[in-house]
TrEMBL record:
Residues 80-114 form a coiled coil. This is Uncharacterized protein. Keywords: Coiled coil, Signal. It comes from the Bacteria. Residues 1-19 form the signal peptide. The lineage of its organism: Bacteria, Bacillati, Bacillota, Bacilli, Bacillales. It comes from Ferviditalea candida.
C-alpha cells in the first residue's frame, strides 16, 4: 500500500510538472488536467477500497461467528460441569439427610416401642397382681368354707 502511495505521489508530481510545462507552452487549462487525472486515480482507489472493505467485513463476520461459537461452547461445557457438580452435591446432601432421618426415626421408634412395651408389662403385672389377689381371696374363702 505504501509503495502504491509513493508511486501515486511521484506520478502526481510528474503530472503536475508536465501539466505546468504543457499549460505554459500550449496555454491550456492546467486545473482541468489535474482534476481529471486525480479523479481517474481516485476512482481506481475508491473501487479498490470497496473491495478491501468487503474483504474486511467478511473477515470480521467470520471472527464474530467464531467468537459466538466459542462463547456458546464454553457456556455449554461450563454449565454442564456445574450441573453435574450440583447434582452430586444434592445426592450427598439428600443421602446425609436420609441417614439422619433414619437415625432419628429409628431412635424415636425404639423409644416408643420401649414405652409401649413398658405399658403392656405394667398392665400385665397389674393383672397378675389383681388375679393373684383374687385367687388368694378365693383360696382363703374356699379354705374357710371347706375347712371350718
Amino acid at each position: 500500500m505504501k509503495r502504491k502511495l509513493l508511486i501515486l505521489a511521484t506520478a502526481l508530481i510528474f503530472m503536475t510538472g508536465t501539466a505546468k510545462i504543457y499549460a505554459e507552452a500550449n496555454d491550456t487549462t492546467l486545473i482541468a488536467l489535474i482534476k481529471e487525472g486525480i479523479q481517474r486515480i481516485g476512482s481506481v482507489f475508491a473501487a479498490k477500497s470497496d473491495q478491501d472493505m468487503a474483504g474486511l467485513k467478511e473477515k470480521y463476520k467470520a471472527e464474530i461467528s467464531k467468537l459466538v461459537d466459542d462463547i456458546s461452547r464454553n457456556a455449554s461445557n461450563n454449565l454442564s460441569m456445574h450441573e453435574k457438580k450440583e447434582i452430586q452435591r444434592a445426592d450427598q446432601e439428600l443421602k446425609a439427610y436420609l441417614n439422619d432421618v433414619k437415625q432419628q426415626t429409628t431412635e424415636q421408634s425404639n423409644l416408643e416401642l420401649e414405652n409401649v412395651k413398658k405399658q403392656i408389662t405394667d398392665i400385665v403385672n397389674r393383672n397378675i397382681a389383681q388375679i393373684q389377689n383374687e385367687l388368694k381371696a378365693d383360696l382363703e374363702k374356699q379354705l374357710q368354707e371347706k375347712l371350718h
